[in-house]
């Protein structure tokens, strides 16, 4: 099955300016129950690859993934340091981490708020620039994870398959090269998202070129900044992307091992401030697994959730709206100390 099997694609004709999330939540086999949890399919979702030998595209992607790490770790020592390069590294980490947490995760995977079709595409393009494939692949596997979290069918459970597999091994596995289109029928309605999924390497390549060009401009017009094109590329793209990989992967691995459980869930999800700091708020993972449909993952003011703050600001300007919240009964459950 290809990642965009036409047999499951629905209505690729032009749509209205808004995404109509309220009407599309739960489309396909993975619906949402009143708590926003992904409803398990009537039958087990089969793995998309059963052969042991990886195909060529997976070998190429796996090689590129490893190469990015090597270039980042070796390159930054070869090109030296500058505050300008570090600033771009941090900035691109933060912007793209928001695109992953606020876009790929809270929007495309869980539909926890609404936005325009234009901003939907911007979120998708920024997320794709992280080199973590397209929103259809990302969301489909994440929805599958919520269906089978910390069971033998989970694609990245540290308690079942081990820390290495949960953190990075599953990314390199040929078992998960393709998306699960039957779980994301709601996303397949948008031809521009389908296009971006097919050409998901375009955004990271464009970003790398832009970062390289920015470094060249800095060297030409602001030589006192002490940077150049190659240095900016190593720090701003390769190192930033590598750090972004592992910031994202922490949620799959460490957030099911480290921290405390506020709610009794049928998985090992935990709440961790440390992970929340690296992931702009995704560390409140037990909160999230208890009520995945909420846009906000930190339930209280002291639970840092930068992605939520950004989305809240965007809502003031009408860029996003209908941010789904935790129901009052969940706060009562938390305060009663139900474990």
Overall description:
This protein has 339 residues and is an all-alpha fold. Helices cover 53% and strands 1% of the residues. It contains 14 helices and 2 strands. It has helices spanning 21-24, 56-79, 83-109, 117-128, 135-147, 158-161, 163-172, 191-198, 202-221, 229-252, 273-279, 285-290, 306-316, 328-335; strands at 114-115, 320-321. Strands 1-2 form a two-stranded antiparallel ribbon. Helix 2 (56-79) packs across helix 10, helix 3 packs parallel to helix 10 (229-252) and helix 4 (117-128) runs parallel beside helix 8. It is globular. The termini are far apart. 45% of the residues are buried.
Give the number of DSSP strands: 2
Give the integer mean of the pLDDT values.
87
The helix content is 40-55%
Number of contiguous helices: 14
Low-confidence stretches: 1-17, 20-30, 42-53
**C-alpha termini separation:** 42 Å
Structural class: mainly alpha
Shape: globular
Percent of residues in beta strands: under 5%
Structural topology:
Blueprint (H helix, E strand, L loop, with lengths): L20 H4 L31 H24 L3 H27 L4 E2 L1 H12 L6 H13 L10 H4 L1 H10 L18 H8 L3 H20 L7 H24 L20 H7 L5 H6 L15 H11 L3 E2 L6 H8 L4
Antiparallel strand pairs: 1-2
Helix pairs in contact: 2-10, 3-4, 3-5, 3-10, 4-8, 9-10
Brief synopsis:
The chain is mostly helical.
Labels describing this entry:
mainly alpha, disordered N terminus
